[in-house]
Amino acid sequence: MRPIYRYFVQPQIDVRTKTIFGYELLIKQLTPEGWRLPKSFIDIDLQVNAALLVKTTKILGMKVQYCSVNVNREQLMDTQMARAIIKSQMQLYPTKLVVELTEEKGPREYPDAKLVPYLRKFMEHGMQISLDDVGTGDNDYENIKDLLPLASEIKFALQNFRSNIENPHLREKLRAWKGISQEFGQRLILEGIENSDDDQMSNRLGIDLRQGYYYGKPELLPLIGDSKVIKGF
User: Fold this and answer.
1) pLDDT block averages, 10 residues each, the chain of length 233
2) Is the distance from CB of 9 to CB of 26 less than 8 angstroms?
């Protein structure tokens, strides 16, 4: 039996206006234990992923300003996936599709210089670029500085750090990325907000755009016919 995948949606909050300004699409796999994140996004058949993205955005009638989808370098370089992303933007209009570039490792290495033409093509079709997990892994400033001028958004993930937001080193790193986002005129989204302590510290740091379980967990976006496909749905 072929694996079943669906996109879940998680709200992105602007605390100044107390509104949902965007949604992030998160792909999950149906397992005997329920819906789970795939062990490796690279292993998802690109044809299946592309078709699912098109089907999902076709029914996504959400009145939000932005809708983001995670894209790794392998997917970015795939022609079929790129076409699906462009078609999804057409279906979502006037909502902006945000291509969220992740740092997930794939079987091949793609230098940033090779990614730029592909990212620019998405921008030419009215999309925006987001850089995920800045400040962790390979996404330090030196490694992504060539991509920063293309990005309209950067995301800082609290869940990537063992310490909580009260840690002075973490707060200093967050302030640095806030400064970078202001320099490039970007949205800075703080994700991984899990509780009221995270929320209150975010207030003190002056970061208004947030995402996390504290504001809303990812919810399944069903497709037509899912009741027939997924037992018990």
Assistant:
1) 92 96 95 91 89 89 86 91 94 94 81 91 97 86 92 92 75 92 97 92 93 96 70 43
2) yes
